[in-house]
């Protein structure tokens, strides 16, 4: 059924993931007439498929001000709608003294931001984790870190946005921008033109394609990651943990969300060749955690046109939802490692598994920025595997950018231009 669309709004947001709906909430609360256009369903892609971590520890310190702002916004959201937000504490467990030294280095760099994190030594670990077969040297512990339930959270924020006056239109792809006199004047959707003065592109893994069609270069690639959910279980672990070769967090339903670090897959695609010089350093830095794969995806992506007219269906309508298959071998391995390290998980069984495509930039930092080449166009994308936790804050500062208010966080590190200087 054709959804009803407005003919005019002040701000159009492309994409109903956590960034798009958080921006809509912040704009609606400022009294701005805003609509979100989502080609599939709200939270259909990364924003419902992630681990649900709201993490400061281990983050690039440039993102910590956003992370601290996000914690306040998460509290406010949870006070209005149950999104499963809670402070669990988050521990990066260290298997060796050299890993502890790495954590100390991060802490030294992060301390000035006011982040609430500390090193926990071996004697204190039993307060955080159940008996373990692995000898841990200690952990980097984020005291204010926590989790939320990804699907409930993104939908909950969308509900708050609608209650504040935003419109959210699902099943409505934005084909591209309407441009008049050198500035944005609307969005061309599959159901017609919507006039607007400002557009926020929060298109997740699709943002590069969208920008490219308007001759705006956004260096972004996709990484495939798998996740599993266990049946409810009393394993005596409430803290969210990164065990080095597996990750684990307690869910609101009593089960655990488990995954494996070092098992993300970067498929070779035409874009990875085009962007190879920009991403070379990232690939080298992440080689421990990332497998390069040559397969069908190269040819699938080769078939997607990079330039297309807006008067006929576009690639955004051809794929309503990126829904890649999970890798069962990798997930079984992650669960076995967890069981070996923590015997209290011995009876854990998998009830569900899924995968998602993470959108990444060369420096693993997002773009949260006006696009200088086109007045009225704003980009909030490239969150590189950690946009859920900071999503509400990213939405808030994007809204500040659009309305010309001073963003609550300095955004100098998040410009699009940084990739070209
Ligand atoms: C397996 C996995 C684990 C992760 N774990 C964590 C974690 O624990 N903590 C954390 O902070 N982050 C995590 N992340 C990353 C986090 O999920 C993302 O950074 C975040 O969800 C990105 O949100 P988004 O709104 O930018 O993108 P998305 O959620 O992908 O939303 C983009 C939306 O835009 C829509 N769209 C695109 N183009 C168009 C168009 N032309 N017209 C209309 N709609 C369009 C898409 O359909 C999509 O719904 C993880 C990601 C994955 C996949």
Description:
- By secondary structure, the chain is α/β, with parallel strands linked by helices.
- It has a single domain (11-420), classed as FAD/NAD(P)-binding domain (3-Layer(bba) Sandwich).
- The chain has 12 helices and 22 strands.
- Strands 6-7-5-15-16-17-14-20 form an 8-stranded mixed sheet. It has a 6-stranded mixed sheet with strand order 9-2-1-13-22-21, with helices on one face. A 3-stranded antiparallel sheet has the order 3-8-4.
- Strand 21 (367-370) and strand 22 form a beta hairpin.
- Helix 1 (18-29) runs parallel beside helix 5, helix 1 (18-29) crosses helix 12 (387-403) and helix 3 (64-80) packs across helix 12 (387-403).
- The radius of gyration is 21 Å and the shape is globular.
- It starts with 10 loop residues before the first strand and ends in an 18-residue tail after the last helix.
- The model has no long low-confidence stretch (mean pLDDT 96).
- The structure holds flavin-adenine dinucleotide (FAD).
- The site of flavin-adenine dinucleotide (FAD) has 40 residues, from helix 1, helix 2, strand 14, strand 20 and helix 12.
Outline:
By secondary structure, the protein is an alpha/beta fold. The protein has helices at 18-29, 46-49, 64-80, 97-110, 150-163, 207-212, 270-274, 276-285, 296-302, 315-318, 328-341, 387-403; strands at 11-14, 34-37, 53-54, 86-87, 90-94, 117-121, 138-142, 146-147, 167-169, 174-180, 183-189, 192-195, 198-201, 221-230, 240-242, 247-250, 256-259, 264-267, 290-293, 350-360, 367-370, 377-381. It has a single domain (11-420), classed as FAD/NAD(P)-binding domain (3-Layer(bba) Sandwich).
């Amino acid at each position: 059924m054709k959804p009803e669309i407005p003919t005019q709004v002040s701000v159009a947001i492309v994409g109903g993931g956590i960034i798009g709906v958080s921006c809509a909430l912040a704009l609606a609360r400022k009294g701005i007439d805003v609509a979100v256009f989502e080609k599939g369903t709200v939270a259909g892609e990364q924003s419902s498929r992630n681990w649900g971590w709201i993490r400061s520890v281990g983050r690039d310190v440039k993102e910590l001000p956003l992370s601290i702002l996000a914690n306040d916004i998460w509290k406010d959201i949870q006070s209005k709608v149950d999104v499963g937000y809670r402070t669990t504490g988050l521990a990066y467990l260290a298997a060796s003294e050299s890993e502890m030294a790495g954590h100390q280095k991060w802490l030294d760099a992060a301390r000035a931001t006011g982040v609430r994190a500390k090193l926990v030594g071996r004697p204190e670990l039993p307060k955080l984790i159940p008996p373990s077969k692995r000898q841990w040297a200690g952990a980097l512990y984020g005291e204010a870190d926590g989790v939320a339930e990804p699907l409930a959270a993104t939908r909950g924020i969308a509900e708050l946005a609608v209650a504040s006056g935003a419109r959210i239109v699902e099943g409505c792809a934005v084909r591209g921008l309407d441009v008049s006199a050198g500035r944005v004047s609307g969005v061309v959707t599959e159901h017609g033109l919507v006039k607007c003065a400002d557009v926020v592109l929060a298109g997740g893994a699709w943002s590069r394609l969208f920008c490219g069609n308007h001759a705006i270069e956004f260096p972004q690639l996709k990484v495939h990651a798998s996740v599993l959910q266990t049946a409810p279980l009393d394993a005596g672990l409430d803290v969210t943990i990164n065990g080095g070769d597996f990750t684990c967090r307690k869910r609101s339903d009593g089960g655990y969300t488990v995954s494996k670090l070092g098992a993300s897959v970067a498929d070779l695609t035409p874009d990875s060749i085009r962007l190879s010089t920009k991403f070379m350093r990232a690939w080298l830095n992440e080689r421990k955690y990332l497998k390069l794969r040559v397969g069908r995806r190269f040819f699938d992506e080769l078939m997607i046109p990079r330039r297309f007219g807006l008067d006929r269906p576009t690639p955004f309508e051809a794929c309503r939802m990126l829904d890649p298959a999970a890798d069962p071998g990798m997930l079984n391995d992650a669960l076995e490692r967890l069981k070996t390290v923590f015997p209290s998980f011995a009876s854990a069984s998998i009830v569900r598994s899924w995968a998602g495509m993470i959108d990444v930039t060369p420096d693993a930092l997002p773009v949260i920025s006006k696009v200088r080449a086109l007045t009225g166009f704003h980009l909030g994308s490239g969150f590189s595997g950690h946009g859920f936790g900071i999503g509400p804050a990213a939405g808030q500062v994007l809204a500040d950018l659009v309305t010309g208010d001073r963003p609550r966080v300095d955004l100098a590190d998040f410009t699009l231009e940084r990739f070209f200087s």
